[in-house]
Protein 1
Amino acid sequence: MARENTVSSFNGVHYFSEGWRLVRLPGIRRFVVIPLLVNIVLLGGAFIWLFDRLGSWIPQLMAHIPGWLQWLSYLLWPLSVISIVLVFSYFFSTIANWIAAPFCGLLAEQLEGRLTGKPLPDSGWAAMLKDVPRIMKRELQKLGYYLPRALGLLLLYFIPGFGQTVAPVLWFLFSAWMLSVQYSDYPFDNHKVSFQQMRSALRRHKSANMQFGALVSLFTIIPILNLAIMPVAVCGATAMWVDRYRSQLGRTELC
């Protein structure tokens, strides 16, 4: 299973499909269980509640559209639904990632060892528990990066017509980038790569990372498939780390 640490020409679509394959590897499946359960309970329950409420929310939202824009209602209605689902899915997937962060880091760690044949020296459940405070601090860094940008995009929704048309597109692109950051962070953080350094590295391969994040974002809003997306995304992002970044940014004792 060992892979060479060379910069890969594979795109984000490849790594997303790799995630679905790698998540089923013998020996890796047991590290998938907790992230999978967290996602099923939290995201599954949240979407059941959301779809129950959408029927009352959409008419209330459409009532705020000025009369001179009512002729666009046939377009704004589906965009409003998409916007709510995108914001909602990202919000609850973020909460799920917070809860499951130590276990996602452990999954990334074990998969990297399997792919490279070189396990991290401080790996395993005991090391994961020791690292929980650092992992939570890292999650706060991601939240600090995310919140001001998300709030700026949400304010666009209050601009009649323009906001409801443009904001869903911008939110999808922003979610694609943030989900790439979110899931790539697990293998980067396992190697103590700083958050700023990780973002710079991801920007150098922004096209592939946006493709990967866009697919994760899309699958996050698809019922049933979204329940498995967390461990799949961790595995895909870890494969990308091994191929593209590990040789330059991995801990020197592992190179």
Protein 2
Amino acid sequence: MAGAEGASATGGLMLPPGFSLRAHDEIDSTNEEARRLATGGAPHGTVVWARRQTAGRGRRGRSWVSEPGNLFVSFLLRPSKPASEAAQISFLSALAVGETLDRFRPAGSTLAYKWPNDVLLDGAKVSGILLESAGGGPTGLAWLVVGIGINLAHHPDDVERPAAHVGAGATPEAVLAVLAERLASWLARWECDGFGPARDVWLARAAGLGGPVTVRLANETIEGTFDGLGPDGTLSLILADGSRRAITAGDVFLPA
């Protein structure tokens, strides 16, 4: 299955206006394909979906287990906002994933967001988001690719942090249709109203807010209290001496 395009796609899958689908049975990585399409001039709203990846990856070059039954999709975007604001799209993407999974997750389960871009189901990672971009153009951003993986049918066991999957009834096709609609909605709101509304909704479900967290940076590991988000999405951490530190990139670990 390759090259399906248009608002109406494979198996009756409907995408929002302005989105077009490139579907594959198997591919190296949806993000790699979206990058290739981006450099070739593919338009904003190009969606790359694969039933299986042979070289899927997550943040910091980690591999992403990519067996059939889960969702692997990348969205090629060309935002009109400056490159300095592009990282906020990771929060919009997490909100889109969370609102999508609200329609499919088991009754009684809980869903939360973990900084910067993980979605947790009952405290375990159910989804990951990877942003990649290239500079250029009048805004300083030529394109941005949002890669999203969601554990629907199964999850890996041999990982550093607990993982989970959604379970019965959540097919990749059904989840992708809702996800694209929710992402399109949040992108439109962000373009119009800025980051504030998304920040507020994200914080309402923030994992670990107000409690102790460990943040692993490139060259150090620090501990403190998760005190919220800065206006640009940075993590606000209160250290033991009472000082405040803004974290722009890192891995957050919650207490076991």
Protein 3
Amino acid sequence: MKLDSKYFDKIRVRPDRDAPKKTAAPVCCWDKCEEPGLYKAPRGRDHEGQYLQFCVDHVRLYNKSYNYFSGLGDEDIQKYLKDSLTGNRPTWTMGSNSSGAMPAEKPTGRPKRANGRSRGAFNLFADGEAAAPRRKARTLEVKALQTMDLGDNAPAEAIRLRYKALVKQYHPDANGGDRGSEDRLREVIQAYKLLKQSGFC
């Protein structure tokens, strides 16, 4: 390879003399400091988005003495902190209607049914009504109910109570370690799982 080739001279990279030179960093804003101000510091309240440029030593001093709330009273500080929880946006009380008036009576606690159980916080169901009528049991679900010695329309609470009683009855620990009733226990557990997955309990 010849070093004095015309092609070799064309691919050589040379700095562009016309390119603008890098701008120098601004001077530190601290009084009588000539160091470059490479570090930003916020100007303060009511000057959001504006910064002062300091050198490393003076930015540390500035940050130690910086107080966003300087010049504000305690009440104004508390109001600002409270408003900052909602992003300084207005809020309204929950449950108010379009006219701004609150309802005449506030319900106290959850309304009770005749049997003493709660009807729910929103009064969705009338007295004595269930949330939704239970669907008719399918063949496997009927067999599962029969395995647990229950009728086709047994309520969920009865299914749970019967399951607990049967598990206590057939568990080997309750029978002195006798494993003769393990198959029956397995059938009861499988029947209960099926009923639970089907939404019967």
Protein 4
Amino acid sequence: MLLEVHHLSVCYDTAMILNDLSLSVGEQELVSVAGPNGAGKTTMLRAISGLVRWEKEILRGSRYGDITIEGRVHFSGERIDQLPAHEIAERGLLLCPERRRPFREMTVIENLMAGAYLLKDKEAIKEHLLTVFRLFPVLKERSRQVSGTLSGGEQQMLAIGRALMSRPKLLCIDEPSTGLAPLLRKEVFQKISEVRDSGIPVLLVEQEVSTVFKMANRNYVLSSGKIIAEGTAQELLQDEVLRKTYLGL
């Protein structure tokens, strides 16, 4: 497996956010994690990508309490849960955060080039930019436009494109459909499938399960910080209790 998470637990002071969570992502897989609001999905991605550990260091000794992290994360055969976030990114595990978060006062092309900051090879950067433009033609059309003036769907495509500029080994995407109209959601999900088909594995956190479960190779359901189910779309969606209680279907 490319990514293996073993018994991951995260506590903010006395609040247990993740509880003994284990999951995996294989080469060329698109794996989804679904669950209700507050289930711990975003914390899971932040812990895997090293941001929770960074937050722990920032808060160390402050009046806001402590963060406790337990468990192991292996990526490409290497244990990474003790590494700082920038070293995890350098190894090819990239997080595309919720709410897109472009550098709003920068142009589209400037945002994309910021995503290539880890690369020194100018030819590789040029090649990756062409790949992003092929995947998202609208970004080429808007390349000189200030990012803050893009639509929500265009900003989401920009966020994914920016992450792809360093040619990640695994792309983690947090709630890409948030705030998007149905047609834009459909287009964004199609583009995420194309990312997987291009050879880049994806770990996708999303609540739009009726669509995402069917495009994913495997799915996990997270509730109250625990994985409560795993399987294909067919296996999970035929469970009536799971559908109504945890997936809102």
